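Thread: quick sanity check before group meeting

JM: Hey all, I'm pulling together slides for Thursday and realized we never actually wrote out the predicted structure for the chain we discussed last week. Dropping the sequence here so it's in one place. If anyone has concerns about the input, flag it before I start.
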Amino acid sequence: MHKLLLALAIATLHGRTVTIRVLVTTDLHGNIYPYDYFTAAPANRGLAKIATLIEAERREDPRALLIDCGDTIQGTPLEATHQLAVSAGKTNRQDPMMLAMNVLRFDAMTMGNHELNFGLRNLNAARATAKFPWLSANTRAEADAKPFAPYVIKVVDGVRVAIIGITTPSIPLWEKPENYKGYKFIGGEAASREYVKIVREKERADVVLIASHAGLDRDIRTGKTFPNVTPGENMVWDIAERVGGIDAVVYGHTHRTIVNQSINGVALLQPMNWGGSLGRLDITVDDADGAWKVTSKKGMLIPVRAETAADEKILAIAKPYHDAAEKELATPVAESPVDMDGAVARDVDTALIDSIQEVQLHYAKADVSFAAAFNLNMRIRKGPMTVRELAALYVFENELYAIEGDGKMVKDALENAARYYAPCPSEGCNGKPRTNPAVIGFNYDMAQGVEYAIDPAKPEGQRIVDLKYKGAPLAMDQKLRIAVNNYRYAGSAGYGMFTGSKILWQSNTPIRDLMLEYYTRKKTLPAKADGNWRVVLR
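JM (edit): ok, ran it. Output follows.
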């Protein structure tokens, strides 16, 4: 009888099922308000709206864990205004993202590469504000640098969950040495293997998660490596495939969403950047065999929508920082000598696009620069120009590269861009070029530093005529230093001629920030285009 009762007691003790809910954000980049600072318009993103989604999840499961995968304290004017004031010693305010995340009771955050953009003073100030650990198992502290916790253990209904942080180790390629002084970055795969062993054996973890600020370096569907991959930058595939003992990897850095995909049985989840969605991963375990074993893993992405309410507590925390950013954005930064209209920026050479080209040529020390008209709704009136108006000229987070190229590369890139135009009909174009609907307008690049004409009547691949460099026909073997953004370098939109070229220099800040810096000093935009290109109309 006693043996039967003991067996029943053991069966009861070892027959439980527990579901661990993990909520994930990544690449928030300072987005708190549901607001686009460059257009002054509402936007379906930001931590204030994500907070409402988190609250709804916690009503359903109060034990849910909450993790951020990094690139958190840089990005929006709200954060930039604060960080620049910290750098200048002009504020005692604490970091707004950390304050908001404290209220939301984040369990951990992995350090991202952009956390170092403003230097160690700012990094340490933000870390001091956080009431949760910043993780990075592969960032090693030297000398007097403050170490990062490699992992954290959370217990959910008796289940021990290990969260190991991994940061992309490519930071020295992008950052100034003083911004990471005292830190050394080792490979993410090696660090994962080291700490998975520790948490499994020493910490007796039942479930192991990697929270990575590094993504996939290849297509999840085909396994084919993406072009121009920086070795070791995005190693999630290798971690999942080669390191045993991992149940899931939640990650960021690459700004690509993924859910309900796996490699080698390891679940993968990446929510949308900027707080566009909240990631959720439910991991179910049971102890029927006397030890906790994972029986299922299911992910989902919960989108931020227009009807998603913004949490008033989070808005209140951010309001002083938001107001400071709005004040800064309204500040005159330069003069526009004439009225400028972006509506025709893809039809004719304009001073608006030349203002971007001028900055790119300057910082990249380039012979030739490529840039597109991203915002045809841009209007600038003669007179003082605000920070917001200037920033709106370049609405994407692209960074600038100087690459090693030649005349053929320039010719091929311009021919690819010229696909934007459709041939004029027999009755003519009435003075306005016709466009090819198969080519998205922001993929049409214009070049500065060369002179050329585009003849849409010619076959694709033969449309660039009268191509000159410094007044003479451009030789195809002419060596050139060429300025392009990182997306063009990656070969997007048919610009594969740039792919694999030697990178001579790259910015560690967005082109938009370079423009603000440049025109803050220069004080005036170009008065007119130099007319270095035109479209031939018949």
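AS: nice. Residues 333-535 form a domain with the 5'-nucleotidase;  domain 2 fold (CATH 3.90.780.10). Residues 4-11 have pLDDT under 50 and may be disordered.
JM: adding both to the slides.
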